[in-house]
Specification:
It contains five helices and eleven strands; from the N terminus they run ααββββαββββαβββα. About 25% of the residues lie in helices and about 35% in strands. The chain has a single domain, classed as Nucleoside Triphosphate Pyrophosphohydrolase, CATH 3.90.79. Strand 1 and strand 2 form a beta hairpin. It comes from Rhodanobacter caeni. Pfam families: NUDIX. InterPro entries: CoAse, NUDIX_hydrolase-like_dom_sf, NUDIX_hydrolase_dom.
């Protein structure tokens, strides 16, 4: 199943550049000010049933406290590219050893209400990788079977009023975790690129 995902990605040789796929929506709310670069790791742990690695952010963080997220964060000057950012942040947040990660490709860039433009890096994680949360940033690391996201019945669409704007949203609920916001939107982009949404 990881091979099917890989076939739907932007290749490593052609990382996405420019605005996010949702720029028009964000421009209504934020204007055209430059977005700060960030990257996340959409990690697929190898196994009979591949699983996607997600985190729950700690409650005391200033932004997106308590929300489900992919490991990742803002790009730093020395990172060089989105893959480096995603791997560095994953190592810091969940103890993921870089040598156990094989980047596969990219999803389309996504702009957030907090002013970032995220480059999602999709990668294979070795089955034996040990993951543990960094307590200052991550409350929990959990995994969801990739097959769960492929099931159309598990994708919920709804509309939310935000600052007087009606915004189309998506979410997933698995094992008591509500996966919404930027994380769910990035997953929707994956499903769309695979022709599953």
């Amino acid at each position: 199943m990881i091979g099917i995902v890989a076939d739907a990605l932007r290749p490593l040789s052609a990382p996405p550049v420019g605005r996010g796929w949702n720029h028009a929506d964000m421009a209504e709310l934020l204007g055209d000010a430059p977005r700060r670069p960030a990257a996340v790791l959409i990690g697929l742990r190898e196994g009979v049933q591949p699983r996607m690695v997600l985190t729950v952010r700690t409650d005391h963080l200033h932004a997106h406290a308590g929300q489900v997220a992919f490991p990742g964060g803002r790009s730093e000057a020395g990172d060089g590219d989105a893959i480096t950012t995603a791997l560095r942040e994953s190592e810091e947040e969940i103890g993921l050893e870089r040598g156990l990660v094989t980047p596969l490709g990219y999803l389309d860039r996504f702009e957030t209400i907090s002013g970032f433009c995220i480059t999602p890096v999709v990668a294979r994680i070795a089955a034996e990788a040990q993951l543990y949360p960094a307590p200052d940033e991550v409350a929990e690391v959990f995994e969801v079977p990739l097959a769960f996201f492929m099931e159309p019945a598990n994708l919920r669409r709804y509309t939310m009023d935000f600052r007087g704007h009606q915004r189309a949203m998506v979410e997933f609920v698995h094992g008591g975790h509500r996966i919404w916001g930027a994380t769910a939107a990035i997953l929707l982009n994956l499903l769309q690129r695979m022709g599953r949404a």
